[in-house]
Amino acid sequence: xxxxxxxxxxxxxxxxxxxxxxxxxxxxxxxxxxxxxxxxxxxxxxxxxxxxxxxxxxxxxxxxxxxxxxxxxxxxxxxxxxxxxxxxxxxxxxxxxxxxxxxxxxxxxxxxxxxxxxxxxxxxxxxxxxxxxxxxxxxxxxxxxxxxxxxxxxxxxxxxxxxxxxxxxxxxxxxxxxxxxxxxxxxxxxxxxxxxxxxxxxxxxxxxxxxxxxxxxxxxxxxxxxxxxxxxxxxxxxxxxxxxxxxxxxxxxxxxxxxxxxxxxxxxxxxxxxx
Length: 275
Fold this sequence. Notes:
Blueprint: E1 8-10, E2 17-19, H1 39-47, H2 51-69, H3 71-74, H4 88-94, H5 99-103, H6 109-112, H7 120-141, H8 143-163, H9 173-190, H10 192-213, H11 221-238, H12 248-274
Antiparallel strand pairs: 1-2
């Protein structure tokens, strides 16, 4: 049911047809081009995912959980930028990152913190940009590559931020900047009138949002900068749809990153409530 033992399947490296049980790709020489028969099912699973919708659901569920874990803190009267702000304890329990969690060995928080948010305005702003940027990025890169870019950029942003000494941080904005970085990379590599238009539009957006980050309280611009660079570099590594079709290797990478994110939430809950 899950493993194809006969027939043909696409090579994860070059995207060309081979026997499902081939030891080496006939065209590019990649070993086990059918991924031991699991290549087709990986393609079907990842191919069904709408990245923007998946990210939205994950963020909303994580935000609701952070509110429910400490309702008194969430309902405490605060300023405009802190409406329905979860308590720090709840955010820590669900996997907030920063230099402090890192010092305690909570390495997985660079994955989980992407989906945590500090207020109603925070999550609305980030999800608005996810819905704005994910569809064009998905069209240009493909679903699996978009997932790789988004998660890798979010992780890169937090690695830069944590290493720079930011004590406690959360949010999808580093991953959002990663989408901008990937689109800027596409525009540069594509060239021509269309590529130049893409480069200018998303480059200007990135610059404007980055500058605004210095004017708003509590914004982690280090994560923004790291996310932009991470998204740009991820786009270089995975390539774009016009260069080559998505392969099973892209889908496998996406599933591995999603699995690490799920594992991160499991570890966060385990270390906080069970261990």
